[in-house]
């Protein structure tokens, strides 16, 4: 059948009741997820550690099952113990796993566990064209740390709709990491970015967030205003009234399977909080300034995007990520640092 966004829905029979419970457990663990960002030129040993189907299978097994000894790994993967032992040694040298020695019935055994949940290879790590006074972090659309949304709501990857539509609890689904489009009628999603300026003991000139947004209405309507607000560390920076939900033409990146009756693209919005106030695409929204955010007091920077209950135009929101809309990006945060000579 067709959903209110004009695409084919997943049926309830494909969503076992236990899935939502597993999703809630996974969401509680999300804050403790461990990430490794790899510079391929400086960390070639890590690239070597990943360059084997066997070693990737071992890492996935340890991530899924927890700590295991060499015999257990060999048994679960159906491979010779000697093969596992050789690959475990390479993973140790690459520092991709942790190992401990424990007593066994005959002598000692090596217990192995995964160190990371996600590994990202940065190909732009040493690009000389990048501004050294700007720290940019791109947050995957589905990696929000908290939410409170109401129907109509849902999300999809570049391949298909994810889960069941208009069920807010399914925003906990761990598959949300693949989300390329998120929409909801009211409420918010909130993300935690690292405060790298604090780590570097650097002074900020301004903080910027960039994302592609539109209103949300069943079907589409280019004349459907929605008051979309943005908060940073709990402080409301301002509200922008989005003109509509755009479906007059296909988004440049929107997959072909997503019907034209669904939201196609949005407005690329650039939210800036500076010492003189908060702006959206150079339109001043409020007098909220950098000083009001107290960023130096926090190790993380919390970004919240949503529709206030008291909004004059509660027209919902679509947030477009990589592979959807007109701009191939997720949510960007840029920390603009003061040049050292100016500090």
UniProtKB/TrEMBL annotation:
InterPro entries: ArsR-like_HTH, HTH_ArsR_DNA-bd_dom, UCP030050_HTH, WH-like_DNA-bd_sf, WH_DNA-bd_sf
GO molecular function: DNA-binding transcription factor activity
Annotated spans, Disordered: 1-25
CDD domains per UniProt: HTH_ARSR (cd00090)
Occurrences of domain HTH arsR-type (ranges): 45-125
SMART domains: HTH_ARSR
Endpoints of the signal sequence: none
UniProt feature, compositional bias: Basic and acidic residues: 16-25
Designated name of the protein: Helix-turn-helix domain-containing protein
Originating species: Alsobacter sp. KACC 23698
């Amino acid at each position: 059948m067709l959903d209110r966004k004009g695409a084919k829905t997943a049926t309830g029979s494909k969503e076992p009741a236990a899935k939502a419970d597993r999703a809630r457990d996974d969401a509680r663990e999300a804050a403790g997820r461990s990430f490794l960002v790899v510079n391929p030129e400086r960390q070639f040993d890590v690239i070597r550690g990943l360059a084997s189907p066997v070693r990737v299978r071992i890492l996935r097994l340890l991530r899924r099952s927890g700590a295991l000894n060499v015999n257990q790994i060999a048994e679960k993967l159906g491979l010779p113990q000697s093969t596992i032992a050789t690959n475990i040694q390479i993973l140790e040298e690459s520092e991709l796993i942790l190992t401990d020695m424990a007593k066994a019935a005959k002598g000692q055994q090596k217990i192995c566990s995964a160190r990371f949940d996600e590994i990202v290879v940065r190909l732009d790590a040493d690009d000389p064209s990048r501004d050294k006074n700007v720290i940019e972090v791109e947050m995957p659309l589905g990696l929000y740390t908290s939410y409170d949304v109401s129907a109509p709501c849902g999300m999809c990857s570049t391949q298909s709709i994810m889960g069941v539509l208009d069920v807010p609890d399914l925003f906990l689904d761990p598959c949300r990491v693949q989300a390329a489009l998120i929409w909801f009628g009211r409420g918010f999603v909130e993300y935690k970015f690292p405060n790298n300026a604090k780590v570097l003991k650097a002074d900020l000139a301004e903080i910027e967030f960039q994302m592609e947004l539109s209103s949300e209405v069943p079907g589409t309507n280019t004349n459907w205003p929605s008051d979309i607000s943005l908060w940073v560390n709990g402080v409301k920076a301002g509200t922008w009234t989005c003109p509509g939900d755009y479906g007059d033409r296909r988004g440049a990146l929107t997959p072909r399977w997503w019907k034209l009756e669904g939201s196609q693209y949005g407005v690329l919005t650039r939210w800036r909080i500076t010492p003189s106030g908060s702006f959206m695409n150079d339109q001043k929204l409020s007098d909220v300034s950098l000083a009001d955010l107290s960023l130096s007091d926090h190790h993380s920077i919390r970004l919240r995007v949503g529709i206030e209950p008291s909004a004059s135009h509660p027209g919902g929101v679509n947030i477009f990520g990589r592979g959807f809309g007109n701009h191939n990006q997720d949510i960007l945060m840029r920390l603009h640092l003061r040049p050292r000579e100016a500090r």
